[in-house]
Design a protein that fits this description.
Elements: H1 8-22, E1 25-30, E2 35-38, H2 55-63, E3 67-69, E4 91-99, E5 102-111, H3 114-122, H4 124-164, E6 168-173, E7 178-181, H5 183-188, H6 206-214, E8 223-230, E9 235-247, E10 250-260, H7 261-271, H8 288-300, E11 307-310, H9 317-327, E12 335-339, H10 345-353, E13 354-355, E14 368-369, H11 371-374, E15 379-383, H12 390-402, E16 404-405, E17 414-415, E18 419-424, H13 428-433, H14 439-445, E19 448-451, H15 462-477, E20 483-484, H16 486-494, H17 500-514, E21 519-520, H18 527-530, H19 543-558, H20 562-572, H21 576-585
Parallel strand pairs: 11-18, 11-19, 12-15, 15-18, 20-21
Antiparallel strand pairs: 1-2, 1-5, 3-4, 4-5, 6-7, 6-10, 8-9, 9-10, 13-14, 16-17
Helix pairs in contact: 15-17, 19-20, 20-21
Length: 589
């Protein structure tokens, strides 16, 4: 609560006004009996304590009621006073100053001659009402001060909150004149550009200004744009968002927020479901090759150099890439993955580099941000880079060399700080010899090579991988499987695993769905594993049968589409026409 002392100047004005009108001295005391206002002979005592003579005031403050003392010096309340019986005061009227039903002070009329005393005595009721109103006036001033102090405090608190925001915030009127801005916005612009009297035209290009002002025409209008700002330090890419500020009489102003794009990327990275959160410990296995991969990953995670992961499909190349990212200093940045095979060549360039608005027919309004920009301060995983077209290989090489990109249709280079991890299942050396892969790009991405062996060459990892999948599917499928029969384990060991760990996961999921008790047996195996006899149980060696089973496994691993057949043919080391003939020969559809 505001103290009476806070309005002492106002109380003095009231006291002087009363004294001028009624020709009687006035004094005002607070709850501590400190005289805060006074006229006449009390004027010099302002700021002094009244505790030795303010006995009437003490009673008023205690009871919260008015008191009239017709015989000062002889009244019982004056008993403790040293001037008792010899008091110069002839008549007193004292009224409490109440705030929220509590006496916070008192105001009194003091007469020093019989004429003044007679005047008040004859008109006592009128003077009591008048003094009450004056006390209420002072109380209202205190409430006003309290309200204003609350507003100042709330405004300071609100400004402190706004200044804590990492994003820049600017408010403007409907004509574009700046009304307010926070510290983050102040840091973005030079002092002469952003002031309480500046205009949006000094901050943004005309098109952006027009877009922002459009947000003020409709209470539901929200404008989002990508902007590039020349800040005090450098050129930064930001996301601008303008929205109307709705008041009691409609939209009167517009709020503009500015957030650095790389910061948005970090937030998306933390919240996005695509961040699987893999660590090195998630790369399971007891084989020497897996142990070496884990140790190598820990070392290379601290580096900024490009990594090339090589291995067949399904061996866990992306998991390894994510693990390296999450172990590195870039873990707060985005991990962006793009499969160079899955995206058509015509779209792959725009996915990687983005494009400006109007760059081509059908381009999205406002343009599009590419994966390189999204991965700024983070990691970009280029899966199946061996399938990337040659013209894009050249652009990737330029990014790795110059650390900047240009959007399709753009004219200004955009600096990017991205670590590239590439992966492929193809023989890049053979592709270079045939002119299908750039030699200079090969040496750029092959700085730190990591090879992941296929599952068939590290079958000692089958046990730990199987147990891991059983544990996961127990939770997903509400099962309680704990054991694997010897026959089931032997079939897993005898199988060639053309689809590697991904295929093992598929096999285990199939078996877990069929399981009814705590043990997986051979009857829970998928049909394709049941068809393959264990070498220990079969003495029949038929070349055509082995060839058919090998083609079948490879065909199933890579898919039945055209691209799947092409990859299967390359894995088998035969031409695509030969593969089609063998598929027809063995009635494989």
């Amino acid at each position: 609560m505001v103290e009476l002392m806070a309005v002492k100047d106002y109380a003095q004005q009231i006291a002087e006004a009363i004294a001028t009108v009624v020709k009687i001295d006035v004094e005002v005391a607070d709850h501590n009996l400190m005289r805060i206002a006074g006229t006449g002979r009390y004027h010099k005592g302002v700021g002094q304590s009244m505790d030795r003579q303010g006995y009437i005031y003490q009673e008023v403050l205690r009871t919260g009621h008015q008191f009239v003392i017709e015989t000062p010096g002889n009244h019982p309340l004056c008993a403790p006073c040293k001037a008792r019986g010899n008091c110069s005061e002839k008549y007193e009227v004292v009224s409490p100053i109440n705030v929220d039903d509590k006496a916070v002070g008192a105001i009194g009329l003091i007469c020093f001659n019989e004429t003044q005393a007679k005047l008040i005595q004859e008109n006592q009721q009128s003077y009591l009402i008048f003094l009450t109103k004056m006390a209420e006036t002072i109380a209202l001033k205190m409430k006003e001060q309290e309200f204003l102090a609350g507003l100042v405090s709330a405004n300071h608190y609100l400004n402190s909150i706004i200044d804590c925001l990492e994003e820049g915030l600017i408010t403007v009127d409907l004509e574009g004149n700046v009304l307010h801005y926070n510290q983050a916005a102040k840091r973005l612009f030079s002092a002469n550009l952003l002031t309480p009297r500046s205009h949006l035209k000094s901050l943004f290009i005309p098109q952006i200004v027009a877009d922002i002002l459009r947000a003020g025409t409709n209470v539901n209008e929200v404008v989002e744009r990508e902007v590039h700002l020349e800040t005090k330090k450098n050129r930064v890419q930001m996301i601008l968002r303008a929205l109307p500020i709705d008041g009691e009489e409609g939209v009167k102003s517009i709020g503009v927020t500015l957030r650095p794009f790389d910061e948005i990327g970090r937030i998306v990275h933390r919240l996005s479901l695509q961040d699987a959160g893999y660590t090195i410990d998630d790369i399971l296995g007891v084989s020497d090759t897996v142990c070496q991969i884990r140790e190598r990953a820990k070392v290379v995670a601290a580096s900024k150099s490009t990594v090339l992961i090589r291995g067949e499909s399904g061996t866990g190349k992306e998991m390894l890439a994510r693990s390296i990212h999450n172990l590195s200093s870039r873990q707060q940045g985005m991990f962006m993955a793009i499969n160079c095979t899955a995206i058509p060549e015509t779209l792959l360039e725009s996915e990687l580099f983005g494009y400006e608005e109007g760059a081509f027919t059908g381009a999205r309004k406002g343009g599009k941000i590419g994966k390189f920009e999204l991965a700024n301060k983070g990691t970009l995983f280029l899966d199946e880079i061996g399938d990337m077209p040659l013209f894009l290989q050249a652009k990737i090489l330029r990014v790795l060399q110059e650390r900047q990109i240009e959007r399709i249709g753009g004219i200004a280079p955009i600096p990017v700080d991205v670590r590239v991890i590439a992966a492929t299942h193809r023989n890049l050396e053979e592709m270079m010899a045939k002119g299908e892969f750039r030699e200079d790009l090969y040496y750029r991405i092959n700085v730190i090579p990591i090879d992941i062996k296929p599952l068939r060459d590290r079958k000692e990892d089958l046990q730990i991988l199987s147990e891991h999948f059983i544990k996961g599917f127990n939770q997903q499928l509400n099962k309680e499987v704990r054991f694997i029969s010897d026959g089931f384990r032997q079939r897993l060991f005898d199988y060639g695993w053309p689809g590697n760990v991904r295929e093992l996961q598929n096999i285990m999921e199939y078996a877990m769905n069929l399981a009814k008790d705590a043990t997986l047996t051979e009857e829970h195996l998928s049909p394709r594993l049941k068809k393959i006899e264990s070498q220990a149980e079969s003495n029949e060696f038929n070349l055509e049968k082995v060839e058919r089973e090998t083609i079948m496994r490879c065909y199933q691993a890579f898919g039945t589409g055209v691209q799947g057949k092409e990859r299967a043919a390359k894995a088998l080391g035969i031409g695509i026409a030969t593969l089609y003939r063998k598929l027809a020969r063995y009635n494989i559809e």
